[in-house]
Amino acid sequence: MQALAPEQELAPGQVREPVLEQGSGQVRAQAPAQEPVVRVPDSR
């Protein structure tokens, strides 16, 4: 994670919100429709 920038880990659309990096639980509140998308970076 240190070698790669947070922008690369998250999708281009999600990079706008740094909250995704801290916890997916907060992301759900902002974009519940993108729940499945949040799980993608989590799996990695």
Structure characterization notes:
Residues 1-44 are annotated as: Disordered. Helices cover 55% and strands 0% of the residues. It has helices spanning 6-9, 19-22, 24-30, 35-43. It is globular, with a radius of gyration of 10 Å. It contains 4 helices and no strands. The longest helix has 9 residues, at 35-43. By secondary structure, the protein is mainly alpha-helical.
The residue ranges in which pLDDT falls below 50 over 5 or more consecutive positions are none
Largest sheet: none
Computed Rg: 10 Å
Shape: globular
Element layout with pairings:
Blueprint: H1 6-9, H2 19-22, H3 24-30, H4 35-43
Provide a compact summary of the structure.
This protein is mainly α and 44 residues long. 55% of the residues lie in helices and 0% in strands.
What key attributes describe this structure?
44 residues, 0% strand, globular, mainly alpha, single chain
